[in-house]
Amino acid sequence: MKNSEQELLPFESEEHEEREEREEDEMANARRQWICRIDNLSSRLIKLLLIVSLFGVIIQVSMHIPLVRNWLSLVERLEGVRYK
Question: Are the C-beta atoms of residues 59 and 72 closer than 8 Å to each other?
Answer without folding.
Answer: yes
